[in-house]
Amino acid sequence: MPRPPRFTQEKVAVAAFDIVRDDGEESLTARSLAEKLGCSVKPIFGLFDTMDEVRQAVWERANAWYLERLDAAMSAGDRPPYLASGLAYIEFARTEPNLFTLLFMHRRTPEQMEQSGIQLRPVIELIARRLGVGYDEAYAFHMRMWVYVHGIASMIVTGYLDWDETFTERSLSDMFHALSEYTETKQGSEMDAI
């Protein structure tokens, strides 16, 4: 009976994920991965054709982990779901800076962009229901809010800000209400023009 393989794609992906999580994406090389696994690079390239495939597996694992945390925050019920999503994004930047950088601070592939668009749909629908607007207006609202949230998260991950959770929550709430008022005013002025 043949011996089960010592390495699997899953085991290699987990080791690569750990390297990126601990030391950043730039630390993931075939050599560092082989060292982590305690092997030569041969088993890695027996399971993956290129390091880009390994990086994609790490991105998928990191994205799934982020989405689990996001979903948990939004469904916890201690805050409105949209506010919870922004706070979870910022908290992810604070607690997982290397994974945040991997997911949100570099150019994405077309496949990653498509996947993100699909994942974003429920959030846009939530905004549309909350504000009583169509999908396109809710999308525009979210993009404006996202720039603000991403700016805070990026400044935290790069060390420019060190806001505590209370101040961050108040800031996000203030921006949400300001954008809500802008959206309502804009809708009213469009109705006046008709």
Taken in chain order, the helices and strands follow as: HHHHHHHHH
On the 0 to 100 scale, the average pLDDT is 90
Q: Count of DSSP helices?
A: 9
Unreliable residue runs: none
Give the proportion of residues in helices: over 70%
What fraction strand? under 5%
The N- to C-terminal Cα distance equals: 78 Å
The dominant shape is elongated
The count of DSSP E runs of length 2 or more, i.e. the number of strands, is 0
- Content-based structural category: mainly alpha
Largest sheet: none
For this structure, the quaternary state is single chain
* Overall radius of gyration: 21 Å
Please explain how this structure is put together.
The chain is an all-alpha fold and 194 residues long. The N and C termini lie far apart (78 Å). The protein has helices at residues 9-23, 30-37, 42-47, 51-75, 81-95, 97-104, 110-131, 135-157, 165-193.
Layout: helices, strands, pairs:
Blueprint: H1 9-23, H2 30-37, H3 42-47, H4 51-75, H5 81-95, H6 97-104, H7 110-131, H8 135-157, H9 165-193
